[in-house]
UniProtKB/TrEMBL annotation:
<dbReference type="InterPro" id="IPR027417">
    <property type="entry name" value="P-loop_NTPase"/>
</dbReference>
<dbReference type="GO" id="GO:0005525">
    <property type="term" value="F:GTP binding"/>
</dbReference>
<dbReference type="GO" id="GO:0016887">
    <property type="term" value="F:ATP hydrolysis activity"/>
</dbReference>
<dbReference type="GO" id="GO:0005737">
    <property type="term" value="C:cytoplasm"/>
</dbReference>
<dbReference type="InterPro" id="IPR013646">
    <property type="entry name" value="YGR210-like_G4"/>
</dbReference>
<dbReference type="Pfam" id="PF08438">
    <property type="entry name" value="YGR210-like_G4"/>
</dbReference>
<dbReference type="InterPro" id="IPR006073">
    <property type="entry name" value="GTP-bd"/>
</dbReference>
<feature type="domain" description="OBG-type G">
    <location>
        <begin position="5"/>
        <end position="276"/>
    </location>
</feature>
<dbReference type="Pfam" id="PF01926">
    <property type="entry name" value="MMR_HSR1"/>
</dbReference>
<dbReference type="InterPro" id="IPR012675">
    <property type="entry name" value="Beta-grasp_dom_sf"/>
</dbReference>
<keyword id="KW-0547">Nucleotide-binding</keyword>
<dbReference type="InterPro" id="IPR031167">
    <property type="entry name" value="G_OBG"/>
</dbReference>
<protein>
    <submittedName>
        <fullName>Podospora anserina S mat+ genomic DNA chromosome 2, supercontig 2</fullName>
    </submittedName>
</protein>
Length: 423
């Protein structure tokens, strides 16, 4: 059955990875916190446009998990926190092999980079460090790790391939299946696979170059990466961001300030400000009074220190970049994975979770559930993800129309489904 997507957070020590993780998760969802040695799982919240807005049911939308605020839905997504990597990780430095090995479970990576240049490659305090180096060496560590795993078994791979008379696809699937992404080699395979097989069987000429090409192509496919340039409020960040933007795909980059997001959420939770995650606007008691609300929205009065910090944060982050960027980190990760939100309901007429008698006004709410599936998934894939092995008699879409299991799901198309159990 299709599993839930898993996004790994990686980065060197002191890059702000822990702050980024904390800003992506709801504090109440974490159990036991996070250590710096063993990888931990957490629940982040991806913001999407909820289906309730299409039917003017925003006031009745009550998710079982996450939340929905006026049609802006926060959908839980699993995150994997991997302790800080250092150069030479594939050789075992800093327990690197263990950390790299844990990455095999991730579908995409968020590489948190210290854009300020105030920490060196090992996370030690410095000034003027070039953070573009971190992006290059992290990828090289992953490539070297995969290549090392492959070359360690190279002789036995050749012998087994010949002994069992395997096809190119079978051999490649067998070698890369341990990384949880065998579908990359489902026919028709990429042309690189034919190069791989040709040199594997006929000669050892140029074998190193060919393997490098295959490993690099596999790394790109297996580990699509969002580059989260953190600490954008530091004065040295601008020049580093400009350099990285010229070297990397701009669509893979998100500018963020995790510590700013954590501070704003904390102040909002304590009743000092009015703030919506991902927004560029922050309202204080003084702001609301100036806008004509004599009670200041019921907010507490800020002391001078925090008032100045918020004003500086507005100028240096919110107004300049449009937000702290943290919410957009997960959005970008979902985008590169091609995730599609699908809303399973029991009653396709009311979009509720109950039976036929449950009306639109039911206090149980509508669109209680939402699952994330990869782009290209079919209605049948969603059925197996939601219903498991239960026999499905038929499936209904919006409007009560039956849909075939081989139809694709997409935003606004076959993304509201009701599964009818039976033979």
């Amino acid at each position: 059955m299709p599993r839930d997507p898993l996004i790994g957070l990686v980065g060197k020590p002191s890059a702000g990875k822990s702050s980024t993780l904390n800003s992506l998760t709801d504090a109440s969802s974490k159990v036991g916190g996070f250590t710096t040695i063993d990888p931990q799982r957490a629940i982040g919240y991806l913001q999407i446009d909820c289906a309730c807005t299409r039917y003017n049911l925003t006031d009745k939308c009550k998710p079982n998990y996450g939340s929905c605020d006026n049609g802006r839905r926060s959908v839980p997504i699993e995150l994997l926190d991997v302790a800080g990597l250092v150069p030479g990780a594939h050789e075992g430095k800093g327990l690197g092999n263990k950390f790299l090995d844990d990455l095999r479970h991730a579908d995409a990576l968020i590489h948190v980079v210290d854009a300020s240049g105030t920490t060196d490659a090992e996370g030690k305090v410095t000034r003027g460090y070039d953070p573009s180096v971190d992006i290059a060496w992290l990828r090289s560590e992953i490539v070297a790790w995969i290549r090392g795993n492959l070359m360690t078994k190279w002789g036995s791979i050749k012998r087994r391939h010949i002994a069992v008379k395997a096809t190119a696809v079978e051999t490649l699937q067998n070698q890369f299946s341990g990384y949880g992404r065998v579908e990359w080699f489902v026919p028709p395979p990429p042309p690189l696979c034919f190069f791989f097989l040709f040199f594997l069987l006929l000669s050892n000429m140029a074998i190193d170059e060919t393997i490098d090409r295959v490993v690099n192509a596999f790394t790109d496919e297996k580990f699509p990466t969002v580059i989260a340039l953190n600490k954008i409020d530091h004065p040295d960040a601008d020049k580093n961001i400009a350099k990285i933007a010229k070297q990397q795909d701009p669509n893979s980059i998100v500018l963020c300030s995790a510590i700013s997001e954590i501070f704003l959420r904390k102040m909002a939770k304590q009743g000092y400000i009015r703030y919506t995650e991902g927004s560029e606007f922050v309202d204080t008691r003084e702001d609301l009074i100036a806008d004509g609300d004599p009670d200041g929205g019921g907010l507490k009065e800020l002391d001078e220190k925090n008032r100045n910090r918020i004003e500086n944060l507005k100028d240096m982050v919110l107004y300049r970049f449009g937000s702290t960027g943290v919410v957009h980190v997960l959005t970008k990760a979902a985008e590169i994975l091609g995730l599609v939100p699908v809303f399973p309901v029991r009653n396709i007429a009311t979009f509720g979770s109950g039976g036929v008698g449950e009306g639109m006004g039911s206090n149980k709410g509508v669109f209680r559930d939402c699952v994330l599936v990869k782009k290209g998934s079919t209605v049948g894939d969603v059925a197996r993800k939601v219903m498991g092995d239960a026999p499905i008699a038929y499936i209904e879409g919006a409007g009560g129309l039956r849909v075939a299991e081989d139809q694709l799901v997409a935003v606004g198309k076959n993304d509201i489904l009701s599964f009818k159990v039976g033979k």
